[in-house]
Amino acid sequence: MSNLQTITDGASEPIEGLDGLLHSGERPGERTCEEERRWRKERVAGALRLLARFGMNDGAAGHITARDPEDPDTFWVNPALKNFATMRVSDLLLIDADGRVREGDGPLNRAAFAIHSRLHQARPDVVAAVHAHSTYGKIWSTTGRPLEPLTQDACAFYGSHGVFADYTGVVLDLEEGDRIAEALGTGKAVILRNHGLLTVGATVEEAAWSFIAMEQACHVQVMAEAIGTPVQMQPAMAALTASQVGSAAVSKAQFDMHWDTLVADDSSVLC
Fold first, then answer.
1. Could you read off the pLDDT of 186-228 as tens digits, one per residue?
2. How far apart are CA 256 and CA 16, in angstroms?
3. Could you give the CA distance from residue 182 to residue 164 in angstroms, rounded to a whole number?
4. pTM, to two decimals
């Protein structure tokens, strides 16, 4: 048994690691296509509000996408120039592979299309992608270095994130989106040098919480290096910890804890 706290789910057998927090409720496979679309759109709007709560709504920058379950070559995204803190389901835009707005009103962030359309094309397993100009993600991105396994939480990204080690201005070119997708590879996150963070997931919940967790890991590393020379975990222990805290189930469980509060505080997100 590892030194990670053992968590029980109320059953007779203990569950080691944070996967024990996974909700036991409805699964995506139990929903109709329309219900799944609604689910994803609600989580996109909620995730944007959650980023705002964490102070990650920096001006007009930032976008979250979710692939449409019926037409996987299209995706839902927040419109430009609307604050994350007031985002609603009805605000989202449906964008096709050519960058046309199929549904919804409001301006499309062209950088959102250039980046996310290529990520979704390169990674059929990716349902959602998150990018925002969070403060510590921007700070850490200037180093052009991957995150190090300094804490248990940072290990969630150990061996599963890359670095896009270039900067050529605002991403408006599809070829730039292809290069970002290449830097992401098969991982769940990529650090965009001199720019910020980007995370992906098989659910909106996974991608959104991964972004928040990565921003927090950047904050810790920036502060740790400011006060001295931090001590990294040994690779074997970092890999073990990654397997315990870095799963999609953990990210979803973390997001779900905030989802209930978001809706209870302001149900307009569902409108």
1. 999 999 999 999 999 999 999 999 999 999 999 999 999 999 9
2. 20
3. 9
4. 0.89
